[in-house]
Amino acid sequence: MAQEKTVETTGLLGWIDQRFPLTKLWKEHLSEYYAPKNFNFWYFFGSLAMLVLVIQIVTGIFLVMHYKPDAATAFASVEYIMRDVPWGWLIRYMHSTGASAFFIVVYLHMFRGLLYGSYRKPRELVWIFGCLIFLALMAEAFMGYLLPWGQMSYWGAQVIVNLFSAIPFIGPDLAIWIRGDYVVGDATLNRFFSFHVIAVPLVLLGLVVAHIIALHEVGSNNPDGIEIKAKKDARGIPLDGIPFHPYYTVHDILGVAVFLIAFSAVLFFAPEFGGYFLEYNNFIPADPLVTPPHIAPVWYFTPFYSILRATTEDFLLYWMIPFLIAFTLLVLVSARSGLSKAIAVAVAVVMIGGFFVVDAKFWGVVAMGASVMILFTLPWIDQSPARSIRYRPKFHWWLYGIFVVVFFVLGYFGTLSPSPVNALFSKIGTLIYFAFFLLMPWWSTMGTFKPVPERVTFAAH
After folding, report:
1. 232: left (phi over 0), alpha (psi -120 to 50) or beta
2. pTM of the model
């Protein structure tokens, strides 16, 4: 007879613990997981992202009960949900508002990581999993955007999928493979529906679990960027740590309450949010024969869409080539490794040569993709001796501020119709955006840094 596992609990819980590590998981990830005691309001956004994820999954389940993924009936099924299904309008608006809310809290969560250096060693994997979550979230939002089968949904998908055709050699066939047809149609709708409802959510949930496991393995960062595990008491408990439960589970109730008030205000009084959360063109059924005068993605994609539109032939020749030459010279002057110098020269030569050979549309797609993928490099390009912005030189604050302003400017101009003025500002913003990251190995080490304390700074409140 197999020997029974010894557990501390009794009764039903003890029976479960002998067969499943429920209490062990509770202790490891909540009651005995010690988080820094100096978390501030920036640390609300991680738990809020989890809340919105639950909202999206639950409302999505109810929407799928009535939605029909068919080009002939998709728009009508959404109207049926809005007009005839009891409380269907509420579920639909919760889902559409939740999509924008998800990106708001995720952007703020990522910015907090940028401010406090949460991507630095030993949290590189935590950051990488977070960036993968961001990519999965973008894919989920893009595929879900087509499902209402409105004018902007249809033409937005047509434009974005057509971008893949700019890839040399395989582009046209790849675009047909993604669409499932020569144009966006019923096959595309069914593919996007299956990915939006099943495939991407499964990947997203897996990445969220991996993100949390990686975080709890190395411990949470804090506004001071100090490792609390370095100072422990006789029992091995961090001196500057407190149990996540009940302290932060209760603490997060405040953030959840404020968020739900704001969420409800938008939900009940401005669900379209001036056409930013739900575009007015999307209340018109998709018509393949009528192209809208201005096609733009939802607001959370517009910064990257601006980068795509800014990448024209004149931008590549008169803006990017001088920048690449200057960047390569900087690497040659400052890099110690001969391999780094060789790689920098090779990349610059290939890219500059490619500007003359390959169409600017392709480089626009590359720039748009690179603007997201460059986030993955942060753990290695940030060479600052201080992890947190609190102990960095004042001009670092200005650089982060400029970066935020540029991101908003790119987002704003991405919503507007193309014009020479809009194109100029988008090009300037694109150059600053990439310069922020590409020059980070140098500017992150410059200036006078404040001494970092041995223990976290905390004032009871």
Report:
1. beta
2. 0.94
H-helix or E-strand spanning residue 402: helix 394-414
| Structure-block tokens of residue 22 | 């429920």
Q: Where are the alpha helices (DSSP H) in 164-227?
A: 171-179, 186-194, 200-218
Domains and CATH numbers, the chain: 37-276 (1.20.810.10), 299-443 (1.20.810.10)
- Phi and psi dihedrals of 34, rounded to 5? -95, 120
H helix count then E strand count, the chain:
20, 2
Specify the range with the lowest mean pLDDT, choosing from 177-181, 218-222, 333-337, 384-388.
Answer: 333-337
CA distances from 209 to 204, 213, 397, 418 (A): 9, 6, 33, 41
Please work out, in degrees rounded to the nearest 5, the angle formed at the alpha carbon of residue 248 by the alpha carbons of 243 and 250: 120
Q: What is the per-residue pLDDT for 460? A: 66
Give residues with Cβ within 8 angstroms of 211, minimum separation 6: 126, 129, 130, 133
pLDDT of residue 6: 83
